[in-house]
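Thread: Modeling a multi-component assembly for a lab meeting

Hi all, long-time lurker, first post. My supervisor asked me to bring a structural picture of a complex we are working on to next week's group meeting, and I have zero experience with this. I have the sequence lines for every component (912 residues in total). Could someone generate the structure of the whole assembly? Inputs are pasted exactly as I received them:
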Amino acid sequence: MNLTLHVWRQKNAATKGAFVKYDARDISPDMSFLEMLDVINEELILQGQQPVAFDHDCREGICGTCGLMINGIAHGPERATTTCQLHMRHFKDGDTIYIEPWRAQAFPVIKDLVVDRSAFDRIIQAGGFVSVSTGSAPEANAMPVPKVSADQAMDAAACIGCGACVAACPNASAMLFTGAKIAHLGRLPQGQPERYERVVNMVEVMDKEGFGGCTNIGECSSACPKEISMDVIAWMNRDLLRATVAKGKQGSK
Amino acid sequence: MAIDTSVRPQTDTGRRTADFQSTTLDAKVPAGPIEDRWDTHRFNMKLVNPANKRKYTIIMVGSGLAGGSAAASLAELGYNVKCFCYQDSPRRAHSIAAQGGINAAKNYRNDGDSIYRLFYDTVKGGDFRSREANVYRLSQISVNIIDQCVAQGVPFAREYGGMLDNRSFGGAQVSRTFYARGQTGQQLLLGAYQALERQIGLGTVKMYPRTEMLDLVVVDGKAQGIVTRDMVTGKVESHAGDAVVLATGGYGNVFYLSTNAKGCNVTASWRAHRRGALFANPCYTQIHPTCIPVSGEHQSKLTLMSESLRNDGRIWVPVRKGDTRSPDQIPEGERDYYLERKYPSFGNLVPRDVASRNAKDVCDDGRGVGPGGLGVYLDFGDAIKRLGAKVVRDRYGNLFDMYERITGENPYEVPMRIYPAIHYTMGGLWVDYNLQSTIPGLYVIGEANFSDHGANRLGASALMQGLADGYFVLPYTIGDYLATLGPTKVTTAHSAFAEVEAAVNERTRQLLSINGQRTVDSFHRELGHIMWDYCGMARNDAGLKQALNRIPELRAEFWENVKVPGDGAELNQSLEKAGRVADFLELGELMCLDALHRTESCGGHFREESQTPEGEALRDDEHFAYVAAWQWNGVDRPPTLHREPLNFEYVHLTQRSYK
Ligand SMILES: Cc1cc2nc3c(=O)[nH]c(=O)nc-3n(C[C@H](O)[C@H](O)[C@H](O)COP(=O)(O)OP(=O)(O)OC[C@H]3O[C@@H](n4cnc5c(N)ncnc54)[C@H](O)[C@@H]3O)c2cc1C
Ligand code: FES
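Re: Modeling a multi-component assembly
Sure thing. I ran the full set together rather than chain by chain. Output:
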């Protein structure tokens, strides 16, 4: 099939970007979206032009590296599907497709469709871990974990850190991402000792990085390729409230 | 250890078989009963005074399971760590893609597992081409890994009583595999990543994402640093340290199409090889039987589906060549369930290498299905009749969804099509028992070393090995080296760094200035075809010689005719790829040479000349019970072969049989 693409091109962070139109010809419906871009790039290179820069690695929906706004939708039209797993059979011959990078103040554009998501790493640095140094762990089965808790922890831990939640949210909020880590660790006994300190520290960094607040729109969860539920945001808010109340009590002593 | 640097004249056989006055490598395996060796060794190793640890800088290249766990553990001990990865975050290393699980000899199921049994299975599974002492240590440490990961909050699958669940994996007779749904690698990597981020936050690790190592710096025979390129700004920079660790993963992408991530590469290992580190068993590659077949020339990578599918799916092809009827039109009597026919006792559950090779054979015979005839059916029709669609959905629903997402076909109605794909590389840089390469101060961990899997890796043991190396082996053995040496005086002001930087810059300049007619990908694809055809699932003398003629020609063309647009001082993905493909073009030749010299079949290396009358792999222990470690002598000059003899004191040599 043949398609018309409008691709965001931007030389670097300091330069202004713009859409550039490309014709994609003889695209097979069996190609993935990124393979379609590969075809465009091979042509551009042979014409002596710079190929379109985009991030990707595993191409199987698990590393969270890829991520494009496709006709205004994070990762495109298919539910629970990353850009690398989206196939061209979901488009029609003659379609026009707009391709943009994630748009968020906290994710500055590096080049073309590549953005800087290092703010996510800094949120994890603030507390998204259990402080257990190598060698100090007790026997694994010494502490039973109810199956339900383990399963719910896993639901939240499935986050791939792609940033689609931020890109989809009109407020560019990172609450789904942050909440997912807080809920993952908070649901497990191993995460209890640092539970309240963790939420306070992570939320503080999240705000400092320039992510917006949550107004319960739910775009994050529907864009999420791993279908992380908005419940994790409620969980995070509850923990944050308890943590601040506890802190307030301590302060008044 | 003395390394023979003499180069033999380039006679035809000399160039090809490269069997020179090789030396014997000393793996520094401690003496004594195998159960005590690691303990004794730990006691005998020197310790670095805790107060002095911060005076040492360790350079960690890679932040996957191996590098991430090692960087975090070393920083916890008090060392200064500089950690590098090419992705935008350490959380994205390709370890993230592992699905099935991780082995450990916990014996939670009371089904007869033990450290010794895991050791035995791994040595045997590796087709007797691994080092017993390393494998024993790996089995011992396996239990600590699970403890560590659980404490970090890795959400492993649990039973209703709250205890950890296990499953049997890859044909093992005991249930020793721990898993987190189909995302075990992801969860283990996130555990290591979180431990690493904690140290980054504490300032003990400095992380360099989107930074690629392009060369190793060796000063007075010791590894003292690396030269990197910042992939955003293009800046080429030197980093000095007391030791360098490579944790840079496998080189399966030499085949272009593989289940590896697009960025997986051999550059770090290859550059170290060129600076003196021996490369061991490069021809040992693992081919996974249940991958989604290629759909056309545009294909950029292959996707693996868990081999658990073979528990209920039946593999078949039409009896008749060139039968183009749709599968539902082919009556039972005209189907060949070839694995069930040839291996009545194991049937569809034969090991990975056997299943893969047989798929290739029926396709070579003109009976393959799907585009290009490169596929076989994996049919759930009988399973659905027997168990009902619901049970099948419960067991394999997510895999069926993934298959449908990629192929657009519904496997509940139409049989799946599968084909083998390159999945894992057992070969890698040679390391001794301490995980040190032949360059003092250069350590290699995870898939990047040649390590513990011999000629064939068992399912769920790569995650185990990466984490064993990173959490529990390297932190000890590197301390011994550092304590013996004392803090280095070498800084990036040393002239060696300027020289290596100049070489790196010159190579970049060259790649950018060729301005030829072909893209990097077109060269990579062509190399991949050569490797797959001649150094893939089955290898023979004539084919390997043909590959050894074609690869140098392709490499020469690359350096005259590749087109890399843009410049070096910016994010330039074509340039990144060009550097990696240039290294693959050298590695591919070494792989073929290694495969040519090893005239036996073993594990993932099937030499057609060496098979039993029934067509099974035939080892030649008398001549090949050794690790082949190759020394670089320059492009277009034959490498020198060094051998590490393998002794089997505990597990007795036997031939595998699955009839
Ligand atoms: C699809 C798939 C499924 C698998 N399933 C299983 C399984 O179920 N069980 C199992 O045990 N094993 C499995 N394996 C194998 C296992 O996942 C890998 O062998 C293992 O994760 C490798 O870990 P690593 O740390 O050595 O390398 P990687 O995770 O690949 O990490 C390599 C690191 O090195 C960095 N790097 C590479 N080159 C450079 C450079 N030049 N400069 C700077 N940084 C660099 C990368 O950025 C990355 O951080 C699977 C593999 C695949 C592909
Ligand atoms: S490239 Fe890894 S999730 Fe898309």
